[in-house]
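Hi everyone, sorry if this is the wrong subforum. Our group has a chain we'd like a structural model of before ordering constructs, and none of us has done structure prediction before. Sequence below.
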Amino acid sequence: MKNEMTLRSGAKIRQVGSEEANKKNYLTRQTLSKMHLMPSGEPIAYDITADGQIIYYFDPARVVEAPPENWYFPKAKHDTMTLPSGTVIERMSTKNAAANGYYTEERLGRMHYEVVEEPVAYTLKSDKSVTYFFDKRTAKRLPLNCAKCGKDIRYKKKLCRACYEAELAVRRAEGDAHRQAAYNMPREKVLFFDLELTGFYDHDEILSVTIVDATGKLIMDTLVRPKKKKKWKNTEKIHGITPDMVVDAPTMDELGPKIRAIFDEAENIIAYGVSTDYSHIKYIYDTAEEREALHEKIRCCAQEYVRYITEHRPDLSHASLTDAMACFEIEWDGIAHTSAADTVACMKVWEVLFPNYYAN
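Answer:
Right subforum, don't worry. Here is the predicted structure as tokens:
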């Protein structure tokens, strides 16, 4: 048999006969139930009965013990029912069925699932009528309707294509107005900066600082000698700064007053991804008030770029500085991932995003 089925996860399983399944020790739900087990993973194969019902086979290495309270139905131990296919299913309370991920066909329908497998358990109503339970994990997920209009199938962001594009047009217009606005910022009062670090965490230290104003003037470009860290092999591969290179460099204690004086004269301070850089540079200030004043001046170029591609290039999913440079076809000055090159690159990306940002 060469027939295949695609599960909701995208995994493909093939159809096998009972003889092959037995040779490979595959387990059916009926067998699992008898052993007080339940599957912990997706089916590994399947078969179709003469009346069109699907029987799933599970890997014996991917099963877990069923909760003891599900082994038997209270006051009705070993109550079972034999389906037309010959499969025996056990009686189970609605609560225990839900604990196993089993639901009625009606409930699954409300959850936007379609039943494709035969029942895996059942219960009896007060009038002795039978209610069947089906496994949600092997039910077919149905397409969801638009969360806004409720008519068409969802396309993106829980919206159908028409609603998504209408909402995108509104957000794009708002974003374009934001980016095209005249901010009349003096170029000398707008700074761009970048740091290179010993690592990616708050306890890591600064290895280099570059500050450039919006005229392109280099205000500061220096290596920094960390006080605690002696090696940083992982980040050394990225920015190329070795321990030997910073032996004679100033510390942040020495540079702090100079950087504060530069920042205090600025109206805006821009970086690409400010959260990491700010979390390290803020310590040049002593008080929470001073740090908050610094934070008020900082603008994030990465955040603005993400907004731009969300509105104009939804096909793009990555938003690093390298991605932004490639998107706008901007040439690098220097080697990427050094603080000097990254600072100038951030300045260039910002000017593309905000062509009217500076005063004439």
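For your construct planning: The first strand starts at residue 4 and ends at 6. The radius of gyration is 31 Å.
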